[in-house]
Design goal:
CATH topology of chain A: Rossmann fold
CATH architecture of chain B: 2-Layer Sandwich
Oligomer: heterodimer
Number of domains of chain A: 1
Shape of chain B: elongated
Helix content of chain B: 25-40%
Strand content of chain B: 25-35%
Distance between the termini of chain B: 7 Å
CATH superfamily of chain A: Class I glutamine amidotransferase (GATase) domain
Order of helices and strands of chain A: EHEEHEHEEEEHEEEH
Strand order of the largest sheet of chain B: 2-1-3
Helix content of chain A: 10-25%
Largest interface: A-B, 18 and 11 residues
CATH architecture of chain A: 3-Layer(aba) Sandwich
Strand order of the largest sheet of chain A: 2-1-3-4-11-10-9-6-7
Number of helices of chain A: 5
CATH class of chain A: Alpha Beta
Shape of chain A: globular
């Protein structure tokens, strides 16, 4: 499975993302944002975390309109897989690939801590190696992660099962205390209509090795890789 | 030709920054503030002298980049 990790000026999680993808068995490479095309045979595009363009204007606003994003949009329209984490989620929303927007955290603070997420469904390319309802232990690090959408969009996301992850406690209970950034319906990640684009604020790539205290993030990358035949 | 674009949050969109500023003004003892909403101002210099062309360019700038119309409104004033 070939993945392209897009690097914008100000991205800073591309190294960890490439590492997590390679650990899971993907042939992962970094791709510069000024490229007009994705590398031949790209199966998965990843927009990593960071502070693209210094978060100027709005988080992800300028990166969302970068040259390479036309190629990412075309890849998504063909049904290709796209994952956006943290700033990558913000970029996907600004690029119009996912609905809604990530606003300033309700408490106005940058939050950075371990966080449990409830896996809402395990029948997608991103989550097949998890159990439905499983509480996975990953972490968050963001100042603008407060997911906001109009009532109609929210109703559609819920009605069509497009919520990917919710902030929860260690037992998988979605409690107000677990939702530290104030996101509507405790939303931590959402899918596109065809389930091939996933945006999420938490960082699964941070928890892929025992050395750093956890491996719950691995399931996401292994799910992605397991959907493709192994390279010869 | 010069223009000013003002981008503001739509009514009903929670503005935690505006709320924090409102609280700070209260704690500074500035009386009579009923509410604060924070927005952005862009001063833009245009190459054209044609008002219709300028309006067209500014509308495109707002729709494509300056405002996220999911949560924001914009207003264009040409000097």
């Amino acid at each position: 499975m070939k993945s392209a990790v897009i690097v914008f000026p100000g991205s800073n999680r591309e190294g960890d993302m490439v590492r997590a993808l390679r650990l899971a068995g993907s042939d992962a490479h970094k791709v510069w944002h000024a490229e007009h095309e994705l590398p031949q045979g790209t199966d998965l595009v990843v927009l990593p975390g960071g502070f693209s363009y210094g978060d100027y204007l709005r988080c992800g606003a300028i990166a969302g309109r970068a040259t390479v994003m036309d190629a990412v949009r075309a890849h998504a329209a063909r049904g290709g897989l796209v994952l956006g984490v943290c700033n990558g989620f913000q970029i996907l929303c600004e690029a119009g690939l996912l609905p809604g927007i990530l606003m300033r955290n309700a408490n106005l603070k940058f939050i950075c801590h371990r966080q449990f997420l409830r896996v809402e469904r395990n029948d997608t390319a991103f989550t097949r190696n998890y159990a439905q309802g499983q509480a996975i232990d990953v972490c968050v690090a963001h100042g603008e992660g407060n997911y906001t959408a109009d009532a109609e969009t929210l109703k559609r996301l819920e009605g069509e099962g497009l919520v990917a992850f919710r902030y929860c406690d260690a037992q998988g209970r979605v409690t107000p205390d677990s939702n530290r950034n104030g996101s509507m319906n405790s939303i931590a990640g959402i899918y596109s209509d065809k389930l091939n684009v996933l945006g999420m604020m938490p960082h699964p790539e941070n928890l892929v090795e025992d050395l750093v205290g956890g491996t719950d993030g691995r399931g996401l990358f292994e799910s992605l890789v397991s959907g493709f035949p192994k390279a010869a | 030709m010069k223009a000013r674009v003002t981008v503001t949050l739509k009514n009903g969109v929670l503005d935690p920054q505006g709320k924090a500023i409102e609280g700070a003004l209260k704690s500074l003892g500035v009386d009579g503030i009923a509410g604060v909403r924070q927005g952005k101002v862009f001063d833009i210099e245009l190459e054209t002298g044609d008002k219709a062309k300028a309006e067209e360019a500014l509308k495109a700038a707002c729709e494509k980049l300056l405002a996220n119309t999911v949560i924001e409104n914009y207003r264009v004033e040409i000097a």
